[in-house]
Amino acid sequence: MDFLKEKEAMLKAVSRLLEDKNFKSPEEANQFLSQFVGMRMEDVTQALSPRRKADAGERADDLFFEAMESRSGVTAKRKLKEVLKLDPDHVRARIALALMETSLDKVEKLLREAVAAGERRLGSMLEEECGRLWCWHEARPYMEARAELARHLALQESRIDEAIVEHQELLRLNENDNQGIRNPLLGLLLEVGRFDDARALVKRYDTEYAATWLYAKALLAFEKHARKAGWGPPQQAHDHDWLQEQMRLMASGVRPKIPAEVHKADKLLIKALKFNPWCAIYIIKCGTYLQMEPPQSYSPGSPEEARLFLDSQLSAWTSHPASLLWLMCVALPWLIQNGYEKEAAP
């Protein structure tokens, strides 16, 4: 928390300086800032913003970090309310208060208030800087509020369409997507069967090379070829009943009859398996690994990456049982051949 506090103070000092100095070009600003490379954050802050009496906004920030460091929820909530007395539009304090609630309605109400506070604070900047809003330090709390609201809506099955709209709006405001919004958005689009929108998103960020993206490409290829072959659960069968019957047959040694057309998608699934086999293992385990706490960091191809993959894409696969059957038929032999027999066993 001390690191975050120092970072926040430094970013504010840099933002204030850039406004005051009125540099003629980005190159001129970068040349000036280069002299501070390698310095401690607190020294940079002091050099850029000499000590002076803190204003109400800065006192509110200090109190906010005190609240976040508090070990008592009651104390934290009291301090956050004091923050809002100093600065009614303190977006991060409003977000923190929202996330302390347990009622879905209350959480949403407070998150929408945080979004509204951010809109008031940014004013015309919202549209003037649309597409690169994250570049502005003062806009980040607003973007964080929108992201929390999008996440909150996505947790409610009946509101996924609303969640998709929120995620898409975040990408409109910040095309570079520093927040990683494209990953949960991709999972939501796949979950509800908006495959054309998912393909457009994949094309938009086609340089992405991560497990989430590779498995999504495989699922999209499967959907395309399965639809062309007219393959999937019979109309009259409940999807998961059909899947359970197919798995029962597999367990008795009967190989599912998957059309050759569908197997044209196998190549992309194998590519995803080679990059991170743990994602397929975790899908086959039917989300057992969701019980694990999400990691703070990960390396490509690791079990930690696969754990994060579950959050954004498990529902996309389980919502389409035919894709699960195809994944098992293709992934299980590959996993066994490559030394993952014990891990992949259902």
Characterization of this structure:
This protein has about 350 residues and is mainly α. The protein folds into 2 domains: about 1-175, Serine Threonine Protein Phosphatase 5, Tetratricopeptide repeat (Alpha Horseshoe); about 195-345, no CATH class. The chain has helices at about 1-20, 25-35, 40-50, 55-70, 75-85, 90-100, 105-120, 125-130, 140-155, 160-175, 180-190, 195-205, 210-230, 240-250, 265-275, 275-285, 305-320, 320-335, 340-345. Helix 14 (about 240-250) packs parallel to helix 18 (about 320-335). The radius of gyration is 24 Å and the shape is elongated. The two termini are about 40 Å apart. The relative contact order is 0.06.
Features:
single chain, 346 residues, mainly alpha, Serine Threonine Protein Phosphatase 5, Tetratricopeptide repeat, 19 helices, elongated
The number of domains:
2
Total helical segments: 19
Going by helix content, strand content and strand pairing, the class is mainly alpha
Span between termini? 41 Å
Examine the secondary-structure arrangement and name the CATH architecture of the largest domain: Alpha Horseshoe
Major beta-sheet overview: none
H/E topology pattern: HHHHHHHHHHHHHHHHHHH
The CATH topology label of the largest domain is Serine Threonine Protein Phosphatase 5, Tetratricopeptide repeat
The number of strands is: 0
| Strand content range | under 5%
Radius of gyration: 24 Å
Helix content: 55-70%
Large-scale geometry: elongated
